[in-house]
Amino acid sequence: MRLTVLAGPTAVGKGTVAAEVRRRYPEVWFSVSATTRAPRPGEIDGVHYFFVSDADFDAMVERGEMLEWAVVHGRAKYGTPRGPVEAALANGRLALLEIDLQGARQVRASMPQAHFVFLAPPSWEDLVERLVGRGTETAEERDRRLATARVELAAADEFDTTIVNDDVERAAEDLVSLMRSSPNGNEP
User: Which of 36, 108, 124, 171 has the most other CB atoms within 10 Å of its CB?
Assistant: First the structure.
């Protein structure tokens, strides 16, 4: 099976599109990332993320248990546990990773056959509005995330495909269509 990697700038709606895929396409397997950041309101350990300490995260990296990992926004560590991804692919599942740009680059290095999809905002102004409207970050954190987003937007050409997130349902449909584009979701 072929792994699909979804990445894009902060606040572009990766989580919203992924939630729509999860709701409409139960056959798609989702990786659960590990992170050292604190849970946001409503997030559940083991469902949204595996919330781990810095020491536990570092031990997972040292043991080679991460497919990719990075320090995001200059603060928290995020990573994809390798074992569940490999098991899903071995079991013939359509598998999706929703990760940041740094992680996508690491996955490309270790799994170049994956399909890399960039989720783009309709415009810069829309991205800023989404981040501010989310209301989950301080002004300092918003500024840091927007600086990161400018760098992330410039990397769109590194991806195989770009989907503009101007409509969540359509973006989710386009993503799953891409995942199914090869017979049975297999590599061509």
Answer: 171
